[in-house]
Amino acid sequence: MKIHIVALGIVALASLAAVGAQAPATQAAPVGNAEAGKKLYESYGCYQCHGREAQGSSATGPRLGPKPIAFTAFSQYVRRPTGQMPPYTSKVVSDTEMADIYAFVQARPVPAQNVPLLREP
Ligand code: HEC
Q1: pLDDT of the chain along its 121 residues, tens only?
Q2: Residue 42 maps to a domain
Q3: N or C: which end of the chain has fewer CB within 10 A?
């Protein structure tokens, strides 16, 4: 009986490892929703340091958009920052939310010609 339990455990571990092995080492950025990301970027306070348009500020935090670092590195940094930035674990910002925030910063800052108020009449 004991042997059966051990054997079951090994099978379970092996299948877990197989699931893990299926995930490619460098994943392409998941497709996020920039509109949802905009709300999350505000509610999580990213804007307080990185600016409302992710444009950054020399005083509080670097520019994030429109060409952020690769998604994997972005996500890792937000989860485990090494400098002044506070960490956001996966309990706070889910992977889906991370993808949405990433989509938002990729779409920012909005170029001046796309701001209706700044358009020539
Ligand atoms: C309290 C200020 C603060 C907040 C809030 C903050 N950051 Fe940061 N962030 C920083 C600073 C400062 C850096 C520069 C490195 C450092 O000191 O950690 C940084 C670095 C980063 C980097 C690495 C940029 C690069 O090019 O290497 C990413 C990505 C990032 N922040 C994303 C976010 C996101 C997304 C949020 C919201 C979920 C957020 N940050 C909230 C201050 C902040």
Answers
A1: 555 655 555 555 554 444 444 444 555 668 999 999 999 999 999 999 999 999 999 999 999 999 999 999 999 999 999 999 999 999 999 999 999 999 999 999 888 888 888 887 7
A2: yes
A3: C
Does residue 69 line the site of ligand 1, with CB under 6 A? yes
| DSSP codes of every residue in the chain | -HHHHHHHHHHHHHHHHHHHHHS-SSPPPPP--HHHHHHHHHHTTHHHHH-TTS--BTTTB----SSPSPHHHHHHHHHS-SSSSPP--TTTS-HHHHHHHHHHHHT-SPPGGG-GGGS--
pTM: 0.80
* Cβ of 86 less than 6 Å from ligand 1: yes
Show the domain range for 59.
Answer: 34-111
Domain contains 26:
no
Name the residue with the closest Cα to ligand 1, atom 13: 61
